[in-house]
Write a structure and sequence with these properties.
By secondary structure, the chain is an alpha/beta fold. It has six helices and eight strands; from the N terminus they run E-H-E-E-E-E-E-H-H-H-E-E-H-H.
């Protein structure tokens, strides 16, 4: 199957369920930036519950193309995100295995949100051992080309996971909380399940 999705920051488990069931994926890179979405935020599970991590950007309200959105490095977001990730997953079974690689990726100097997201996506795919062909759109089309499922903005903070007919979240061990929390950043799955993460992704999707 082939899918069209938007660029996201450390995307959710649901996002990677799509990738785990795909032959090819196209990343939309010519849309206008939409604020209050997962394009520049993700969610992790810490000692105080679900925590949102947001990458500050310039021009969030300007309707600029996502390619032109620049990261606001005047804010110490990298340090804040890393401390939050350490607090949430420092005791997770596979934190030590992935942590140094992730920190290296986060601290590399990058100016654009799209570049950051693309590099982190590549990192996550490598850690998941998920070989998939990633393409990038050459122009914006209101509708996806024939034969490609358009899932742009399907995974959205203001939409419930129950709206995703293909997402059947498989529960797995999490560090905090008594009740399983689905749909967090893929970091939650990686740090908690390690090499078995791909199996969880495969079991969590139903595509026909």
């Amino acid at each position: 199957m082939k899918f069209l999705v938007e660029s996201q920051y450390l995307p959710s488990v649901a996002y990677f369920v799509v990738l785990a069931h795909a032959e090819e994926v196209w990343i939309e890179q010519h849309e206008n930036f939409e604020k209050q979405t997962y394009r520049n935020r993700c969610e992790i599970l810490g000692p105080n519950g679900v925590q949102r991590l947001t990458v500050p950007v310039h021009g969030a309200n300007s309707g600029k193309p996502v390619q032109k959105i620049r990261i606001d490095h005047h804010q110490k977001w990298v340090n804040n995100h890393w401390r939050a990730i350490q607090s949430a997953y420092g005791k997770a079974p596979f934190f030590d295995y992935y942590a140094d690689f992730l920190r290296l990726e986060l601290t590399k100097p990058r100016q654009s949100l799209l570049e950051l997201n693309n590099c982190l996506l590549t990192f996550c795919l490598k850690m998941l051992n998920l070989p998939i062909k990633i393409n990038y759109t050459e122009k914006y089309d209101l509708e996806a080309p024939e034969g490609i499922f358009d899932l742009r903005s399907a995974i959205h903070p203001k939409k419930g996971l129950e709206d995703l007919s293909w997402f059947r979240p498989e529960s797995y061990y999490q560090v905090f909380g008594k009740n399983f929390v689905p749909g967090l950043s893929v970091l939650d799955l990686l740090f908690c399940m390690g090499p078995d993460a791909i199996m969880v992704l495969k079991k969590s999707g139903v595509f026909q």
